[in-house]
Amino acid sequence: MRLGLALGYWGRGPDPHHLELAREAERLGYDSVWTAESWGSDAFTPLTWIAAHTTRIGLGTAVAQMAARSPTTTAMHALTLDHLSGGRMTLGLGLSGPQVVEGWYGRPFPASPLTATREYVDVVRQVLRREAPVELGEGRFHPLPYRGPDATGLGRPLRSITHPLRSGLPVLLGAEGPRNVAQTVRIADGWLPLYWSPSRPDAYGPGLASLPPGFRVAPMARVRVCDDLAEGLLAVKTMLGFYIGGMGHATRNFHADLMARMGYEEEARRIQELFLAGRREEAVLAVPDAFADEISLVGPRERIAERLELWRKGPVTDLLALAPDPHTLRVLAELNS
Fold this sequence. Notes:
alpha/beta
């Protein structure tokens, strides 16, 4: 099982420790470092900065939001950074939800998310292969060239001026629903689960039953070496309280739906209710310790070593550690060696 460092996205400003953590991860032999975006910092700029200060470690987005850029724009970002880094780029994509797509990007959330994702990946792959001008004439969400009612009619299929360094640059997808996971196995090079429980693989649907050779399963998990388990889990619960309670609408929250499928439906709805009522501290405390614990690696070194075996036994190929400190990074590297 390879190790990756997940840095997430910025809060109020850039984290002054991110570059230090990325360079330490490279020194410790980590395979990759990953950045993200929500509605603030973008995923590609910090990753480019890290690329300029490292030499070997792989670079990934987990995830870049599809609504933020047209698929050709995303492909341009990926092929450019792949060149500048010497072939270290992995493109992780996610659709996000209606709250972000419509509220932040000012675009309609696709009526058929699976079709929109499939078209997006198709266009990205066409750009990277550079076998012919990019066309998706029958595209419902990403038609190329654009032929809408307000089109000039002058658009024509184009092929990237720049030759991509790797036509097979890996494309991974963030997916939560069973149908989305099944499609990810069919069209992508890997899957980026937001919450992964090694004891509940059935929660993600039957799509994982037969994975193609080389398919990557790369979940993010908060990792923290500490003596006080309750204290360590509090950071996990805080994150879950925000995502389950506030990352979506009361009637459409993919994260809450996933928690429900994992056996915590009543608790998920209670967290939503408290968070949306403005009772955020109560929402965090309502997150069950058991749920926070099964999707993370927290506690003393011996406990993490024991639980790490569960992660190795399943389909996980890459553990992307949300690790807050160099000590935890080092311990995890030693335990995984």
